[in-house]
Sequence to fold (309 residues):
Amino acid sequence: MKCRVCRGKAVIDLPRHNASFCPSCFDSYLMDQVWKAIDEFRMFHKSERILIAVSGGKDSLALWDILNRLGYSTIGFHLDLGIGDYSRESTEKTRKFAVDRNLPLHVESLTQEVGASVDSIADLTNRPPCSACGVSKRHLFNRAAKTMDCHVVATGHNLDDEASRLLGNILHWQDGYLEKQNPALPDEGSLVRKVKPLNRLTEKEMAAYAFLKGIDYVVHECPMSVNAKQLFYKKIMNEIEQESPGTKQAFYFGFLDRRSHFYPEKDESTPSFLCRECQSPSYTEICTFCRIRLKVSLAGRDPDSGARS
Fold:
């Protein structure tokens, strides 16, 4: 197997591009894909400071490494979800990555912020774990960005993530989510911009980058996501991709090309309230995150709830 560019020995085969690459040419290809994503969707500029939401997995750590190599000003933000050994390993690998590369990292604990770990929050609020996690992350990422004077929050969502999410949203015709499925969401009031610079790259490509760059990351999936529909949709997309390479890319970018036709640009409705608890924009008097926090607090005081205080 020879590299398509230099004809040297290839180490990775990319069927969707009908191409193979050696380590050096693969690195150039991958960096170019990130540049294209940043430029095409006008994600951020060199003058802006970027908060990287770092989980300890390959995608977010690789994203931090890539943006640092590209010369952007970044700070890592890691949220310890309190999921036993999984969270301990995630935090340890994130800290080591930052120390080894002399990169700034801020770590917060969900248990300290809400009063319970993500699995306990799910039990106490009757929410699926991924829902409780998502609400908490969105709130705390945004708060951290404002506190640390960052202009944008960048996450490590890759092409596989976005294609499987799109499939799920279309299967259930989730118009609200489809309308907002964009790799660059603009800032709204005190809600900072959110971007996904890896949206042109697959999970396989990010794993290859992490391996070639010696990035030590958490390999296994979050134990709370075992029954998540997202993993089921990802499995379906992988089976289709196996039979027809390039389908994920065509499906996802085909939607983005037609998104304005399905969902015409309009003035975004802005939240009507400032949450009376945290002063964040909210469509209700108390935002979803603070309602979760209050439920956890009340459950912890109820001796009949069986909850840990």
Q: What stands out?
A: The two ends are 59 Å apart (CA to CA). DSSP finds twelve helices and ten strands in the chain.
